[in-house]
Amino acid sequence: MLSKKATIDDVARLADVSIRTVSRVINDSPRVGQATRAKIKQIIEDLNYHPNTQARGLAARRSYLLGMIYDNPDALYINDVQRGVLSVCRESGYELVVHPCDMHSDTLTEEAVSFVNRSQLDGVIILPPISENNDLAGALAKNNVNYVRLASVPLDKAEHVVISNERSATAAMAEYLVGLGHCRIGYIAGPKGMKSTRERLEGFCDALEKHGCKLETEMIARGAYTFESGIECARMLLANPNRPTAIFASNDEMAVGAITAAQEMGLKIPDDLSIAGFDDSILASRITPRLTTIRRPVMQMARKATVKLIAAVDGREEDACRGVTLVPSLVTRDSTRSLD
Amino acid sequence: MLSKKATIDDVARLADVSIRTVSRVINDSPRVGQATRAKIKQIIEDLNYHPNTQARGLAARRSYLLGMIYDNPDALYINDVQRGVLSVCRESGYELVVHPCDMHSDTLTEEAVSFVNRSQLDGVIILPPISENNDLAGALAKNNVNYVRLASVPLDKAEHVVISNERSATAAMAEYLVGLGHCRIGYIAGPKGMKSTRERLEGFCDALEKHGCKLETEMIARGAYTFESGIECARMLLANPNRPTAIFASNDEMAVGAITAAQEMGLKIPDDLSIAGFDDSILASRITPRLTTIRRPVMQMARKATVKLIAAVDGREEDACRGVTLVPSLVTRDSTRSLD
DNA sequence: CTGAAAGCGCTAACAT
DNA sequence: ATGTTAGCGCTTTCAG
């Protein structure tokens, strides 16, 4: 069957050169004659030779492995990031090792560092909300591991973050709602302590004020990015004698919860109440009415992050340090309407 | 900062033993004295020593890396499998490398084999629908790579599959619906050519007949496991002058499509029509009305598959060959009701 | 432009 | 129960 796998020695022997030269070809080093190079490439092809990644890694102190560290209840988001990262990995000969973990664990940092060392990862990409953990980032830096964080604010050197400007995204949403004639708007926020919670809220709030609509304290409910919390918050908001004409939930899960709660109260969406979310999750387009929401360029962010990471691994400082900020976009559907 | 990472030599020197002995301790080999072992373990701890996986792999022809090959539009499913696989990996010192791919690609098999070789994977887990590809499985076998397929029928040796009995699951669904008094039932099937499509259909059909309800040809619509196809199929089914009183869609996406279509036609679910799905995806519990569906034990399957795979890698034949069949369960919610 | 040789950190025969 | 030693397949000074 399959005769033993070819090694660099086989290639060298057949090409009648030293393995050093073959190695040069494999690694695209210059200083190899055209003819020699072509010949070697041909032989590599014929032999169906693939360099052994482990040996390569061992010798070069590289693993060609990238890691992805996350603890995110949102499988869709994770999946999108994964696809984005992988699309770049493919072009660059890297593989992706995934590492979900518990963001509340005491040993999170320790665990993550151990993960990187254990597998000799060349670098890691950290997803929100763990990406907001400065402790982790600090430990990685101290251990000399390359990392890039997906975030909503510049919480690290440009080298280490890719940002989606959620503040401007929610601002756009606020303007859209105001444009529809809404002014008394309910806001379902995320949990305290997360940067993105604050970014989203402030962006929305500021934009509203700019248009002369204040976001009253009683119109802000604190959710937990879950369906259930969306239900509760909406009930609270709608219990107010002076009911809002629109509710913006800072993620889709909560928005769907809000729709559910509103419908239970006999309100028609969007006739009696407009509702919008954030994420453009699969739910958003499946629910009735289809949800107006905000779409983050997740795959793109993941791609950019990976490009930066690999640049850092390769020591291409300039590419690695280039700042990256992307802006989410508004997706208008059927859950919001003009107040006429 | 961080003085150079400790190696096995450092440990050996400090313990005043040969590296061979340290190696034995690392690999839990017997034939090491109690005292020596304890001492070495202590030193390993003190030094915060972690064996270099690449060197280990290179020497032992092992990578401690498992792969996951898939092309599944369902991020939730993938995510669940991933979590299941990883939970076992953690206990066994393995890491997971993910590899999405295009099931319709001509080079799928070649690509997958190359992936495994390139990264020296110790084994791979293959998800449906790619798991049904015998070509791929054959190529892996020929290349001596360990693999386990997640499937709905025993399409390979016990060593290479973990099965979820979807036939009995849809049978249970049929019985449940009949129990509610439904007999004229519409069925939205999956795409032709997939084993699971057939399994689900036959299980449903057979159970129906056992209870004296025939599944008429005109009551079977061929979908594509997508939301849109669910809409179309439901429209077709409901256009029949002798309308069904219930529709079973063979996945949730299509079931949600069916609900959407039915509601557009002015039908109330479940008052005018019962609808059920398959998957228990996130949609199922968020949609209104909440969807009656079937839940596969995805994480469990993934765990079992990983255990088998690692057993095979370790050469523990018996554990590797033990047959595994799991049964999905019925989840009843609000989208189905008794016909009275 | 190319080659010789010294490792990278670990495992596994083979000894003792 | 423990030590010696030869690689695993590749990269990388250092020569030429």
Description:
The structure is a homodimer of 340-residue chains. Chain A has 340 residues and is of the alpha/beta class. Chain A has 3 domains: 8-60, lambda repressor-like DNA-binding domains (434 Repressor (Amino-terminal Domain), Orthogonal Bundle), CATH 1.10.260.40; 65-164 and 298-327, Response regulator (Rossmann fold, 3-Layer(aba) Sandwich); 166-296, Rossmann fold (3-Layer(aba) Sandwich), CATH 3.40.50.2300. Chain A is 46% helix and 14% strand. In chain A, strands 2-1-3-4-5-11 form a 6-stranded parallel sheet, sandwiched between helices. A 4-stranded parallel sheet of chain A has the order 7-6-8-9, sandwiched between helices. In chain A, helix 8 (166-179) packs parallel to helix 9 and helix 10 (227-239) packs across helix 11 (252-264). The first copy, chain A, starts with 7 loop residues before the first helix and ends in a 9-residue tail after the last strand. The mean pLDDT of chain A is 93. The first copy, chain A, binds a DNA duplex (16 and 16 nucleotides) through residues 7-9, 17-21, 23-24, 26-27, 31-33, 36, 51-52, 54-61.
Structural class of chain A: alpha/beta
- CATH topology label of the largest domain in chain A: Rossmann fold
CATH architecture of the largest domain in chain A: 3-Layer(aba) Sandwich
Low-confidence stretches of chain A: none
Largest interface between protein chains, with number of residues from each side: A-B, 46 and 46 residues
CATH evolutionary superfamily of the largest domain in chain A: Response regulator
Question: In terms of quaternary structure, what is this?
Answer: homodimer
